[in-house]
């Protein structure tokens, strides 16, 4: 996940001269610590604010705050949306594919289900 965070920031234009990879990984690690504070589900909002604060306000980085915000939002989108889409696809497949299911009433009596 830290690699995804680094790649997301680099993809929107935050160069290694603006914010080094070590600082990005440190901000990611401290942001993961913010997840433990139960303010909102998954730390959404609080963690993003921590990422932005650590990358823009701290250590005198030369990066633009808008570009860093775009990188953080890209990271959040890439870390939340693909699992949601995969889970939705799995649910639809599981719900409509009945070929592998057996009737529980027949299984309970010990009879073999007619295939």
Can you offer a commentary on this structure?
This protein is an all-alpha fold and 115 residues long. It has one domain (2-109). It has helices at residues 2-12, 21-34, 46-57, 65-96, 104-109. The longest helix has 32 residues, at 65-96. The radius of gyration is 22 Å and the shape is elongated. It starts with a helix and ends in a 6-residue tail after the last helix. The relative contact order is 0.12.
Q: How many strands, which pairing sense, and closed or not: the largest β-sheet? A: none
Number of strands: 0
Task: Report the oligomer.
Answer: single chain
Shape: elongated
How far apart are the termini? Answer: 45 Å
Mean pLDDT: 82
Structure classification = mainly alpha
- Secondary-structure element string: HHHHH
Work out the helicity level. Answer: 55-70%
Strand content: under 5%
SS field, number of helical segments: 5
Over the alpha carbons, how many angstroms does the gyration radius reach?
22 Å
Compute the number of structural domains: 1
Weakly predicted, low-confidence segments: none
